Amino acid sequence: MTASDAGxxxxxxxxxxxxxxxxxxxxxxxxxxxxxxxxxxxxxVVGLLIILGLVVVAALAGMLAPYSPTVGDLKNARLLAPSAxxxxxxxxLGRDIYSRIVYGSRWTLYVVxxxxxxxxxIGLLVGTVAGYAGGWTDAILMRITDxxxxxxxxxxxxxxxxxxxxxxxxxxxxxxxxxWPPYARIAxxxxxxxxxxxxxxxxxxxxxxxxxxxxxxIMPLCISSLIIRVTLDMAGIILTAAGLGFLGLGxxxxxxxxxxxxxxxxxxxxxxxxxxxxxxxxxxxxxxxFNLLGDGLRDALDPRSGDQ
Amino acid sequence: MSGNPDKxxxxxxxxxxxxxxxxxxxxxxxxxxxxxxxxxxxxxxGIVGESGSGKSQTGRAIMGLTSPQxxxxxxxxxxxxxxxxxxxxxxxxxxxxNRIAMILQDPKYxxxxxxxxxxxxxxxxxxxxxxxxxxxxxxxLEMLRAVQIRxxxxxxxxxxxxxxxxxxxxxxxxxxLIAGPELMIADEPTSALDVTVQLDVLNIxxxxxxxxxMGLIFISHDLRLVSSFCDRVVVMYAGKVVEQLKASELxxxxxxxxxxxxxxxxxxxxxxxxxxxxxxKPEWAA
Amino acid sequence: xxxxxxxxxxxxxxxxxxxxxxxxxRFLVIAVTTYLGLLAVTFFIGRVIPIDxxxxxxxxxxxxxxxxxxxxxxGLDLPLIEQFxxxxxxxxxxxxxxxVLTTNPVMSDIRRVFPxxxxxxxxxxxxxxxxxxxxxxxxxxxxxxxIDQIARVIGLIGxxxxxxxxxxxxxxxxxxxxxxxxxxxxxxxxxxxxxxxxTGFYLLDAAMQGxxxxxxxxxxxxxxxxxxxxxxxxxxxxxxxxxxxxxxxAQEYIVAARAKGLSETRIIWGHALRxxxxxxVTVIALSYASLLEGSVLTETVFSWPGIGLYIxxxxxxxxxxxxxxxxxxxxxxxxxxxxxxxxLYRLLDPRTKAG
Lengths: 308, 286, 355
Ligand SMILES: Nc1ncnc2c1ncn2[C@@H]1O[C@H](COP(=O)(O)OP(=O)(O)OP(=O)(O)O)[C@@H](O)[C@H]1O
Ligand SMILES: [Mg+2]
Known about the structure:
The complex is a heterotrimer.
Chain A: H1 3-8, H2 11-15, H3 23-40, H4 42-59, H5 61-64, H6 97-133, H7 135-149, H8 153-164, H9 168-179, H10 181-195, H11 198-205, H12 210-246, H13 258-265, H14 274-301
Helix pairs in contact in A: 3-14, 4-6, 4-14, 6-7, 6-9, 6-10, 6-12, 7-10, 8-9, 9-12, 10-12, 12-13, 12-14, 13-14
Chain B: E1 14-25, E2 28-40, E3 44-48, H1 55-63, E4 71-73, E5 76-79, E6 82-83, H2 89-95, E7 100-103, H3 107-110, H4 117-128, H5 133-146, H6 152-156, H7 165-177, E8 183-187, H8 195-212, E9 215-220, H9 223-229, E10 232-237, E11 240-246, H10 256-264, H11 282-285
Parallel strand pairs in B: 3-9, 3-10, 7-8, 8-9
Antiparallel strand pairs in B: 1-2, 1-4, 1-5, 5-6, 10-11
Helix pairs in contact in B: 4-5, 4-7, 5-7, 7-8
Chain C: H1 2-15, H2 20-48, H3 53-58, H4 64-73, H5 80-92, H6 106-141, H7 146-160, H8 163-177, H9 189-194, H10 202-208, H11 212-249, H12 252-259, H13 264-301, H14 307-316, H15 320-348
Magnesium ion binds next to helix 1 of chain B.
């Protein structure tokens, strides 16, 4: 197919061409197919919209929230039921719960992104090195990974935070420390499938150093399965962070973190259910969003496991 | 034996007329079988054709094992006077394993891995006949002996992974023959086996079919095998029957596809350069 | 989730080659290294992270004399590796120090509270398995049907909802509004004094002693938290069952079973599920382990006097000995169940019996 041909084709046909003229076209074509598979899954699109919504709310929190998230009207606005003025009611310190939830989205994103940024590279590094090096390195690294995999994550995170001291940064650290092992497993499995491929052999023959091979040629191949797994784990991360917040170990008052908000609403749960109700619903929706998005990504990018 | 071999009817045992199997897929309808017709008495019919030509789907449609999303239609699909397509599922199920049976390609995957071989054989029998446990066991052992398994009592209690491929396929044959079917569909019953074992298994199958007077549909890639083993041969291409002829007349086959298949078979003593390539023309599938 | 899948897959793949003896050897190596790993991590948490581990253990209100004595007792003047050796030795003998809060040895505290957690997690797993397995099977065999959608929604929510929040909502609805269940505790106060438990599993104890009023009261207290945990187990178990069943139903031996003329019921429950049951054991064991862990949050919500509540109470009082002791115990049980399920898998799968 020549370039002038391509001009006369519809964009769709160009993307789906069986004989792509360039690597770019092939890559775009594959992305397009994956995108179509993804958007054909309505729930996955809902998930994507929820996450986009979360990002937008976090970005525009200052504009979306009518009240301060931390300072309330203690005299006149304690524990008000939901109304036009306070959509989700107010808490025991007279703060508008809606505004707190809007600002809380920032902390949710903060936790999720930081954990991903810390844990995914650790797992990627451990997994690719183990898979590429093989032998004793592999055995030892994977034994460590399996040991961590066999730990109860929440309890261990709890103990970590107990030692480090409560706080959202420490909660992030604790969660990251307990969540890298699955990524290492995945990265190792992917590495093993390509390690002996002709492609890697060719790169080796060209004299590339192992360091460079792992970094430039193997790691990129692991990225897509890793992204799927990280997205699927996001909900778990949010729930763990919220759990730590609920136990008073995560975000400290007056931060509007959703888990901590549930903890402070617990005392009023029987009479003023909305104080704990609204933040919990927010956690549920966002986790649901990540789960739907993750499922959709997996089905679109990894057709092998489309049956889950 | 429940299927009475003396009850030889005048009409054909199986009649297939214009059988079609269509799969809906993401990219549109796939017609796996497109108007296959043949009839079968108590004889051995071979179906040959290249991979994907619809042989297995034809066999499965007769068994009623086509996956539920597919569409099966035919002008006529009758077994011993029973219209299979309009028969209620319960009745078809009662036929399966009892009067029509099927041997699958690979014993490694077609036997339940967590159930002993004996129980799997007994299960077929007890599904179709009211027999006591002890009697069922006796008959299963007898059947295992009939497929030339030397130590039936031991094999009875083994799990499928504990026996060789050849023995597994014999167990499979025993499992499918125990209820005394009148029609046996063998879907490449030996392709997964070693060449040496292939012949053993084929001989057993041949003997049992002859002894019991069953009808046999033998599905295979291998035209030579089919021609030596069957009375008649149906040649399929892209879901259609392109030629139907007596095995003895195979040499006179007229259709270019059949001739192509014949030419592709290696013959000892003939030097062949270059290797022949199977010709495929779209108009044959039309 | 995919941990189980990995283990299931690994179990199947390597199963054939590994004889029972060498797998037992491997099992021991794994058990020992994993347990040492757990101790190393808790050691790190308890001794290395805190600036002054003595204060971390005793709290900052302890008198100086006590602090000094404890410092020597903990061997903090020794090199780290020697400290770890002592730490492992005392942990193996069940010595986790004393709890500041209760002034008892941590181990005896845990012995007292652990049955409550076991009772809760066991009931939760039973509920999860009894409902989750059939749901997963039905979802798989009627793929895309209404029941499959239901299973999917149940699973998705189970994976997305904060357990403590759902527990609070449950209390509002079933305790405050409907009054179907009793208030958060293990027994009504009345019975706390008249009832003497034997095993520590109240339902069992009450039944054994024929005290049916106590049994009913215990039931009214446990049913909500157990159902809550059961729901989470169900979400996981049904999802895994569905995926295993889909996998099995696509196998050739199912076609063969149909060719034999078996009924669909028999094929599903007699063949496919029997095959899926082998990896299911792993899944149910893992979900049991994760419920033990989940008890930390659930017990807090329902004031359930188990190890989870013990840990969180100790946390708020900066009682590090108790926190780490509890962590080690939950970790050990968790690891133990993990390993046992792996072993059980090998025993159950006939393919692994052949040498
Ligand atoms: N589930 C399905 N969905 C869509 N198409 C299918 C399905 N099953 C079979 N087919 C199509 O039916 C055609 C015939 O398949 P069939 O299994 O009958 O071939 P075959 O002749 O038995 O080949 P082989 O010799 O490889 O066994 C194939 O081309 C395949 O594409
Ligand atoms: Mg076939």
